[in-house]
Amino acid sequence: MAISSSALVDRLLAISRALAGHIDPGAAFRATAVEIGKLIPHDHMDIAVLLHGGRNHSCYEAGFHTAWSRLARHPRPVELSPVRMVFRGDAPYLITADALSDERFHFAGALDEPMFEAKLRSRIIVPLRARGNIVGTLNISQHGVDRYAMPDVNIAQRCADFIAPYIFALIQTDEVRRAMLSESEARSRAELLRVGASKLTEGMERERRRMAMDLHDQTLADLARVARQISSLRNQGMASSEQLSDLESEIANCLKELRHIVNDMRPSVLELFGLRDAVEAHLIRSVGNAKPPISFHVADTSNGDASSLSESTRTALYRIVQEAINNAVRHAGPSHIDVQIASTRGEFRVVVTDDGSGCDDVNPTASGGIEHMRTRAALINARLRIRRAERKKGTRVSIAMKRKAPR
Description:
The chain is an alpha+beta fold. Helix content is 50%, strand content 18%. The chain is built from ten helices and eleven strands. It is elongated.
């Protein structure tokens, strides 16, 4: 494509004006792509940029988008890029009549699917340089075959040289901003976990004292009474059927109370049968003597994905659900409690909903059981939300956590 020097200068000045004011690398590139297109016809244009010291690369596209745009959020190793030859400086540029059959773009693991999906045949690849180093590539494509020649490569390189410093500065600024945000979030999370773990430890100590009091005030008292009854029967020398029946009932009650205490300390149903059955067993215990009665429903549509979670994660999830159920039964007066266990490709979720008196948005500094729920969620990197249920009736407790997608 022949173009006069004055026309080229005019277009470069237009590119400069298009860059002005942008602080996002992708937006800046898309603005310049319009002006570059007046110099080099194209059906698709993108820039691939080096990140993390040149180990990974990202991509910003103009016009229609392909799977390469995902690299802006999830950078991939440079060695998987179809333009790695220019990235590494092995080739000063690439020009091809048909990229779909050009072996330079295709190798094991190459991220080359978008070329086939978008039918990007004629291609020009030129380096973006800043401070004397290659920081990325400018990639221009057309659907037709053999649409570009060396004059187009030269113009593309002039455009790349013109936009590279600005784009590089924006990318560096963006990386610094992300690093600062990540560091700030890490510090906040570390502090949250430190304070939360301390308070959770205090809560566990209170819970141990409560269980000790339960054992002393109820179970040990019951056993002492049974012991006195046995002593009395021994002194009498004989026992009636009614006395033995009362004694059997007392022992059964002691065993029942001990089982409840042991189950509170160690959720054996969770270990043996899984999250769904453990939640259902706890619901049966919690609402068994409720007046008026409370119905419940537990649904697990996760295809058993809870079993793939670590034991500590499953236990934390169970404890959060357990506290949500206890809060509903003790404080909300519901007629029904619903528990949903579900998972998607990227997330595992448990939702506890009741139709009780409900709650407004919970104070972030709330203490007690809700604070423990938050701490347990933070320790397993889960998101906990407590809010009114739909139609402002009842409470909805949602625990969601990311899970690795199956390979």
